[in-house]
Amino acid sequence: MENEHIEVRDLTMAYGDFVLMRDLNFTIRKGEVFIIMGGSGCGKSTLMRHLIGLKDPAAGDIYYNGESFISASADQRELMLRRFGVMYQSGALWSSLTLAENVGLPLVQFSSFSKRQIRSIVSYKLSIVGLAGFEEFYPAEISGGMAKRAGVARALALDPEVLYLDEPSAGLDPLSARRLDDTILELRNSLGMTIVVVTHELESIFQIGDNSVFLDVDTRTQAATGNPRELRDSCPDEKIRNFLSRGELGAGKPPE
Amino acid sequence: MQLLSVSGCGRRLELGSGWNGPGLADNLEKILAQISSTGKESGPLTFSENGLDRHDALVASSILEIIRAAQAQGLEVQFETLPDSIRKLIGLALAVPPREPESHQRDNLFTVIGKKSLRILQGSRHFFEFAGELTYSFGRLVRGKARFRREDFWLTLQSCGVGALPIVALISILVGVILGFVGAVQLRKFGATIYMIDLVGLAVARELGCIMAGIIMSGRTGAAFAAQIGSMNVNQEVDALETLGISPMEFLVLPRALSMILMMPLLTLFADALGFFGGFIVALPMGISPGEFWYQLTESLSLQHISIGILKSFFFGIIVASAGCYYGLRSGRSSSAVGEAATKAVVAGITWIIVLDAAFAFVLEAMGW
Ligand SMILES: Nc1ncnc2c1ncn2[C@@H]1O[C@H](COP(=O)(O)OP(=O)(O)O)[C@@H](O)[C@H]1O
Ligand SMILES: [Mg+2]
């Protein structure tokens, strides 16, 4: 297909001898919001680390726009990396830099904008995640949820083609989480970004997810891929329907 | 190109190809200036799209700035005239009003001096509190009530003891060699080469052994203490201890201080012996036999000299451990603050070692030791 953006083929992930997941196969299309879901500790963050090249697979390959990421030369790989924006699970802001410097660092390093322009862009990105006016704060001076949002702003700094978000809404209040979902959808709609989100917040899975992969910790492989709403309603695997509807009962009445 | 034009119903911003060009920054300043000189009466700010295909971040951020400026001016902004691709993101960016920056008042000279002195006063108060708490935890230790992990204690004991032997050995031997050599060359002029042994013996036993050990431990272990405890502080690990009712002073500081106090005298003895050995290496080629060396060394040294060094090393141990732990506990919550804490611990450790050593020299001199 034309618009395949990221392809994962026969990916096996392992820490030493400990095989975490094997035979992962899925495709992420350009401009969709793709959800990586699964129980806690099943390897979602590890899968993300593979996709962004922080960890090499034990077997298999990952393709970006049809080009192999794993066997790319160092230079090619750096170019590919430049097109990713990543928010790590813990925020991973640089603690000795202010929020403005955190968001601005990629721009200072990799763009030719003037200081004035960078200041303008930084404050725009911070505004998008609802942190206008927090430019001069240090990471230690803001809350955990704010640090996550600042992490998103930093991931957006270089207008990436692919945005990776590791549990962006964990630790956010419902309003901020909702806002973040809106932001994600808007980034997709108006900029056409491909967005990969690790999350198990059911509400946001159904609201933003175009497609998903479900990692099963028991069988150590992917249990299903597809649109999360369809998976919930018609997936043959009971475990997945359970996962996708049990929380729903708690959150409100399941829409028909 | 005219980007901001006055039309019948107010200000109109043309979003054209000029926006992606290099002249954007200049234009932005001009537009902002124009807007800030515009009053409410001139009508709403509208946008008209003219050849803007795909916007980049700079376009969006500039529009955001313009809108903020216009709103600050009280102008009405017609969002619906913004191009679709930008409107929603701009809306999101404007949804949360910016936090007002705190007003920073500039201090005059007197305020600066006053604040600085207060901070120093407070700093010394903090230090005395620390010293008091440490003493108190030692009291609890003696009564067997202190809470800490024995494993931690053994680990630090190992790293301040055995772990430090190689570097202490190397430095001590070299200091012994240098001292012996300098002394021998001078004393040979008077035919008194043999007295280099007195020089090496006294200097190493009374001063250099313990100072070398102290300085090495300050750089090696004091810095490590500050960095460990500082990064625990960053991760709120210290808070986690406190909320459990475990005193960080007992849990973190006590095992470290205790190992340091126990190990410093031993390290000093070790440094003394190897310092003498360094002198011995120089003495041999100067025609002094091993027997003569031993005789002269035991003749010039008494137990008193050695024990003065040992006594001082005990205090140096307290200084190194306290400086490391104190700055670690008081470190700020960022990676550079941890680095700063380690630096301060080393600087303070070495400074106080030298100061205390000088004080000892005066007192011992006065007492005729
Ligand atoms: N550096 C590591 N070395 C060994 N095992 C690890 C490492 N990091 C994570 N793991 C293991 O991998 C599994 C998945 O971790 P992770 O990807 O963080 O899970 P999650 O799905 O919650 O994000 C866990 O069982 C964890 O113990
Ligand atoms: Mg994770």
What key attributes describe this structure?
A: alpha/beta; six-stranded mixed β-sheet; B: 369 residues; Transcription Regulator spoIIAA; three-stranded mixed β-sheet; 12 helices; 71% helix; 5% strand; binds adenosine-5'-diphosphate
Amino- and carboxy-terminal Cα gap of chain B: 90 Å
Strand content of chain A: 25-35%
The greatest interface between two protein chains, and residues involved on each side, is: A-B, 32 and 33 residues
Share of residues in strands of chain B? under 5%
Instruction: Report mean pLDDT of chain A, rounded to a whole number.
Output: 85
The strands making up the biggest β-sheet of chain A line up spatially as 6-7-8-3-9-10
Uncertain stretches of 5 or more adjacent residues of chain A: 248-256
The main sheet of chain B orders its strands as 1-2-3
* Overall number of strands of chain A: 10
Counting DSSP H or I runs of 4 or more residues, the number of helices of chain A is 9
**Pairing-aware structural class of the strands and helices of chain A?**
alpha/beta
| Strands of chain B, count | 3
| Rough outline of chain A | globular
Mind describing the biggest β-sheet of chain A? 6 strands, mixed
Structural class of chain B: mainly alpha
Query: Helix-strand pattern of chain B, N to C?
Result: EEHEHHHHHHHHHHH
